[in-house]
From TrEMBL:
Gene Ontology cellular component list: mitochondrion
Keywords annotated in UniProt: Aminoacyl-tRNA synthetase, ATP-binding, Ligase, Mitochondrion, Nucleotide-binding, Protein biosynthesis, Transit peptide
Domain Aminoacyl-tRNA synthetase class I anticodon-binding span(s) in chain numbering: 347-392
Matches recorded under InterPro entries: aa-tRNA-synth_I_cd-bd, aa-tRNA-synth_I_codon-bd_sub2, aa_tRNA-synth_I_cd-bd_sf, Glu-tRNA-ligase_bac/mito, Glu/Gln-tRNA-synth_Ib_cat-dom, GluQ/Sye, Rossmann-like_a/b/a_fold
GO molecular function terms listed in the Swiss-Prot or TrEMBL record: ATP binding; glutamate-tRNA ligase activity; tRNA binding
Protein name: Glutamate--tRNA ligase
Amino acid sequence: MYRQYAEKLLKSGHVYRCFCSNEELEKMKEIAKLKELPPVYTGKWSNATDEEVEEELEKGTPYTFRFRVPKEGRLQINDLIRGEVSWSLDTLGDFVIMRSNGQPVYNFCVTVDDATMAISHVIRAEEHLPNTLRQALIYKALGFQMPYFAHVSLILAPDRSKLSKRHGATSVGQVVNFYSLLYREMGYLPQAMVNYLALLGWGDGTENEFFSLEKLVEKFSIERVNKSGAVFDSTKLRWMNGQHLRSFSSEQLTKLIGQHWKSTGILAESEGMFVEEAVELLKDGIDLITDSDKALSNLLSYPLYATLASPEGKPVLQDGLPKVASSLLATYDSGELLGALEEGNVGWKSWVKSFGKSMNRKGKSLFMPLRVLLTGKLHGPEMGSTVLLLHRAGTSNVVADQAGFIALDDRFKMLRDTKWESFNNDQTVLESVATVP
């Protein structure tokens, strides 16, 4: 098919046979370079007589088909994104459309392909603008209807350089492949990736940045695509992924994260009350599916000694923590605390109120030492829900052995064995921390 259209251009005079050898072409480039001119073809065979051409054909000299570019004037197209774009024809030079081995070149191929498939819009990277000049000339010469062209800006790296292999991808196709191989493993959602990529150089004219695929289809218009390059911002992508995660229903999110926890070996089961409560408690701190691993592991851990040994833990330690620990152990040994936990949130609130009254503490003075003693940490999700979840984890056997979970029973054993006076000696503290399994 390409040969057929090349012969048509040959008959119409838009194309001619060029018998220049590679050596001759290289010499033309060297001369142009010395004269500080663009390396365009000088047109040696553009005006050859029929006799000269027949002579070379009889000798079997290899030849290419070159497109005859007008030497004067300008060519103009109306780009849907960039508006009017024009080129001076004297900067181009006659270009090859068929190689000497009979193979068509890219610009000739895509023009014939798009025209014969009745392509209406050609949307591609701005790097293709120089190709558009050659393709437009071929469209006109063959009498094809020219499609609408739209040349979009490049996706840039954070340093505003062109996104390249060192940044992870070099094309939309590679972004898709890169996503399927890496971003999915990193915990990104397909919905978030589509949303983010759509906003790289486009917007609907409002402040809205959150779009479902259906909304993108409804709102998109080529006229709102920006001319300037867009920076691929991993932080923004992560934020957007979190927005999509939190738009899921509780059932969807629980199923997604529960299956992930089971697949990574943190949990033995992917569903149930523990999973539902854990997802509900931790979801606000999860932007990626993989964030849920760290969030749950952190909740199940009990770094008490490391917390007490830290500079941030000293004020809590000095605020009568050993005395609070002693009273906490007493209420645990009596079964009062566990009984309250069995009653759920109502039981926990009632116990906390009673415990605070017995210690003459309230607010931060009560809750900070309780958080440290029960969770081993200074910060975390809502404490009542956390402690109730830890209690459920210890009674449901849903947490896998390799998760590093410290059950409430074991936490109270550690509290019972803690030598509080040793925390005044940094070296002793370090040795204590090192022995915690």
